[in-house]
Amino acid sequence: MAKTFSIGDRVKISDSYHWAPGVLATVAEPPTPVANLADGWHGPWRQVTSLRGPLTFYWVQFDVPQIDADGDGPYAGAEIDADYLASAQSEG
Length: 92
Fold this sequence. Notes:
Shape: globular
């Protein structure tokens, strides 16, 4: 895993990400229904196999619930590709 976050870490989603760009959030455990639907959770993260190789995703709780690109929601949290997360502390 290139980026490592822990439960409670404050993060910002990249402005270039397709889901909740630029939003502040907190790394958290996924809700039980989410963890039961998607295998491989290790606390707040899981790896997913893709054509690019393994991708790491973290579950985050948004500061403000978000509407997705289809107009669904608002969602309180989501799994976000770790490559598009940065420590919110680095935002100054």
